[in-house]
Structures are given as structure tokens and as C-alpha cells.
Amino acid sequence: MEEKPSCFRQEFEKREYELLSEYAAKAAESRGRQRPMDPCALRTDFQRDRDRIIHCKSFRRLKHKTQVFLSPEGDHYRTRLTHTLEVSQIARTISRCLYLNEDLTEAIALGHDLGHTPFGHAGERVLDELTGHFEHNEQSLRVVEELENGTGLNLTFEVRDGILNHKKGCRPATLEGLVVNYADRIAYINHDIDDALRAGIIGHIPEECACGLGRTHGARIDTMITDIVRSSMGLPIIRMSSAVEVLTEKLRQFMFTNVYLGSTAKEEEGKAENMIRMLFGHFMEEPSTMGPDAKHHVEEYGIQQAVTDYIAGMTDRYAVKLFRDIYLPKGWEKY
Predict the structure, then answer these.
(1) Number of domains in the chain
(2) Is residue 36 part of a domain?
């Protein structure tokens, strides 16, 4: 009978060198965690980071945070959680085909939006306006480095770097981070088209994009993924071909013009923004009403940062509940 390895982690780390691209990040070569900790006997460091993200409270809250449509009535519209899962699936497919580190890719993808505010980018805009600077990717890093569990998740450098640099225009330190950077765009452009078509916000996409990328949700995603794999195979870069990149950007701009800015999908955003402003003002005046960790956070980070962290971590429905409790008369719905 074949003897089983005494340490599965070491066996997995060995396989990475045997199976993955020379350009892939290797778990055994990680630049380490914020704080030292004993390695796991079963999992590589990147596998462990993925599991830590999945089991954290911030990840669970994503199911009640807006993607594009605020509190949609239909069961099939995306939330921040379903967006995250779609990014993970796309990123894993690309990484697998390019022989990159799928565990690292998955960990970055699952953690990339942990710092997103309630009410999607409307909440992000208001917090940026009120504080002078707020970026959801920076808040996602703050969640995993400081806020979750009171001390952060103590993730590896590679995962934290990928989370911080997942936005368009950023340059993560690993190819796996670049994969998530592309996968995020592929996911939100295509699933937002799907949701906007279902809602009747748009009736079609530009013919040039449909002809070049595909006329269905699945066809467009397949085109973009296949193009990245073919364009990046065997290279120390992740890229799209110029033709597909141009069409993808045209599709993205079409969505900004017709869905993300000024469409009927955004009619309630003004109310959501006012709600965030009023909650922010209230907690700045009465920080003790934020919750059991408020005093500690105010002392450690200052009142503005503590209020920002508290609001950014809320789900849509929790923000609405707090607003009702603070500003509406008790028993309002009974009369």
C-alpha cells in the first residue's frame, strides 16, 4: 500500500512546482503574513486564506449588499455575493488554463469586494464625499487587515495585494491578481447586461459588440475568457487582444451611459445617498450608538474612521433598519 504523506501541505506545495507555470505564484514562496503563525498540515497558505475569507462575517454580509439594483424584487438579480462568486468562477477558469495558482486566484476573488458599502457605488460615493477619500478596494484591504475579528484575517501578502489592486488600472504583484482584475470586469459587465435586459432598462447591446463578442451572456463571457487565455499563454503577463479589449471597453462605456448613470435602475439612489449622509451625521454626533465595538474603534482609529468603517460594513437592509430606528417614529407602520 502506498504510504500517505505525513504533511499534505508539503505535498501540495511540491505539486505546484511540478504542475504550474514558471510565472505562477507558489505558496511556498509567499512573502508571508502580517503576523507569524504556524503552517497548516493540510492546506497551503493560499488555500488557508481562501477558507478564512469564506468563513468570515464580512463575506456573509455580501448577500445583502447591492450590486446594481437596490433591493430588487426579483429573485434573479445579482447581489454583491453572487457577483463575487461569478468573479471567482471566471478567474479560476483563466488561472487553470494558464497553469497559474488557482488557490491564490480564488482567495483574491472571494475577498475583493469585502469592503463594499451598502447600496453599491452610491454608498461609496457618499462616503468619499463625506470623508474626502473612500475607495472600496482600500476598504476591502482594511477589512482583512484590521477589522474582521477585531484584528483582521492575517492573510498572505499576495492575497492582500490582489484585493487592493483588483480595480481597473491597478497593477497587482502577481499574475493571479491580474487575472482577478480582468475577471471582475468580465463578470460585472456581462451580468449587469443580463440584469438590465431582464429589468427592461436596455433592449439590446451595440451591434458591433454583439457581433464581435457574442449575442448571449454565455457567448460573451466565453469569448473574453478564451481571448485572455490565448493572448496570455506562456507569457509573464495577462492581457486581452487589442480587438477584444476595445469591444469590451465599448460595452463597459455603453453600460455606464445607459445603466450605471441616470437610468431607471438608479432612481432610488438619491434616497439611499441621503440615508447614508444622515446615518453618518448621527454617528459622528453619537458614536456610542454604533455598537459594542464603537468605543474601541473610536479610540484606536478616530471617530471619522470608526463611523466610516461601521457604515461601510452594513448591509442594505441593516442600514434601512437603523435609519428607521433613529429617524422614524416608533410604531410608524402600525398607523
Answers:
(1) 1
(2) no
